[in-house]
Amino acid sequence: MTSPESRIPNPASRLRADTHPPDMRPDYTFDFDPANYTPEDHALWHELCDRQKPLLKGRACNEYLRAIEDLNIVSAGGIPDMRRVSDILEKTTGWKLVTVPGLIPGSVFLEHLSKRQFATTWWLRSRDQMDYLKEPDVFHDLFGHVPLLSNPVFADYMQQFGLGAMKAKGLKATKLITRLYWFTVEFGLINTPEGLRIYGSGIVSSAKESVYSLESKVPNRLGLDIIRMMRTNYRYDDLQRTYFVIDSFEQLFEQTRPDFTDFYAQVKALPELGESELLPTDKIITAGTGY
Ligand code: FE
After folding, report:
1. Active-site residue 112, yes or no?
2. Where are the alpha helices (DSSP H) in 4-138?
3. Could you tell me the CA-to-CA distances from 266 to 29, 173, 277 in Å, in that order?
4. Alpha carbon of 117 to ligand 1 centroid (Å)
5. Is 205 among the residues known to form the active site?
6. Burial of 187 by CB count in 10 Å (0-12 exposed, 13-18 middle, 19+ buried)?
7. Could you confirm whether 140 is annotated as catalytic?
8. How many angstroms does the Cα of residue 7 sit away from the middle of ligand 1?
9. Annotated catalytic residue within 3, 6, 86, 205
10. Which of 143, 176, 158, 173 is nearest to 109 (CA)?
C-alpha cells in the first residue's frame, strides 16, 4: 500500500529497499539489471500472479484486465523486464517506468508523476510477506499500478494528480490530496454495466481485498464526491471501511481537472470524517455494517 506521503523512507525498516545502489541519481532512479533477480524471485512472482489473476477475473475492470495482457505482465519469463514494459507504455501513452530502490521522498515521487514517469520499485517481497506489505514492492507497482498507465484517460489523470499534488504542498493541502490518491489510485472502485469492479492498485495486488472490497458487507461504497473524499480518514494497515466508486475514468479526470485551491479552503472548514462514517448527503451505493 502506498500513498505519496507514505513513500517517505521508514528508518526502522530493514528491507532490501533501504540499500541504495551506488549509481543512484539525485532523482532516486538507477539502471536496474533484471539479471539480479534470483530464480526464487521469479518463482514467487509466478505464485503471486497465479493466485491473483483468477481472483481478478470478473472483479477487476476490463481496462485493467486488458492491460495486463497487452503489457504481458504475467508471462512465463517471471518478473517482467521493466525496460520492455516501459517501451510499450512510451509508445501507447507516453509514460516511462523508472526504477527506484524502494520508498522515495513523496516530493520526488510526485515530480516523476508530473513528468509521466512512474517510480517503480525493483525488489520483490519475501515469502512471509505474501499477504501484506507496508511498502511498495515490484509486485504492487508492476502488477498493481503499471497496467492502467496504458489507459489514455487514466494515464492523463495520473500526471494531472502529480502536478496538482505538487501545488497542494504549497497550499498546505498534502493531507487532502493524499486522500484523493488513496481513494482512487490505490483503493478505487468503478461502476460498469456488469456491476462494481476494481481499479485501485492496492486492491488488485491484494488477494484478500480483491474479494472483500466487492463482496463484504462491512465497508461503505459511495459515489464519487471529491470534497467528501478529502475529508475522509482511511486505514493504512487494514482493509478499508469506505470505498469511493467512479462511473468512468473520464468522470474522474473531469472532476479533478478544476483548480483545487477553493476545494481545499472548503474542506479545511469542515470536520474530518471517520473511516466508517456516513453523511445524509452521501451518494450511498452500499452502506456498510462497519464491523
Ligand atoms: Fe501504491
Report:
1. no
2. 39-56, 62-70, 82-92, 106-114, 138
3. 37, 12, 19
4. 14
5. yes
6. buried
7. yes
8. 9
9. 205
10. 158
Three-state SS letters, 20-56: CCCCCCCCCCCCCCHHHCCHHHHHHHHHHHHHHHHHH
The pLDDT value recorded for residue 10 is 33
State the total domains in the chain: 1
C-alpha cell at 47: 505464485
C-alpha cell at 146: 503499471
pTM value is 0.93
The CA-to-CA distance between both ends of the chain, in Å, stands at 21
pLDDT confidence of residue 211: 98
Residue 110 lies in a domain: yes
Distance CA(52)–CA(139), nearest Å, equals 11
- Taking only the tens place, the pLDDT of each residue in 225-279 is 999 999 999 998 899 999 999 999 999 999 999 999 999 999 999 999 999 999 9
CA distance 259 to 217: 36
Is residue 48 situated within a structural domain? yes
CATH code, domain carrying 194: 1.10.800.10
Evaluate whether residue 291 is within a structural domain: no
In this prediction, residue 134 carries a pLDDT of 81
149 within some domain:
yes
Mean pLDDT of the chain: 92
Place 148 in a pLDDT band, splitting at 50, 70 and 90: very high
Percent of the chain with pLDDT over 90: 84
Tell how far the Cα of 206 is from the centroid of ligand 1, in angstroms.
11
* Residue 215 domain boundaries: 4-286
Give per-residue pLDDT as tens, 60-79: 999 999 999 999 999 888 99
**Which residue in 3, 63, 135, 140 is the catalytic one?**
140
Centre of ligand 1 from the C-alpha of residue 120, in Å? 10
pLDDT value for 133: 81
Annotated active-site residue 20? The verdict is no
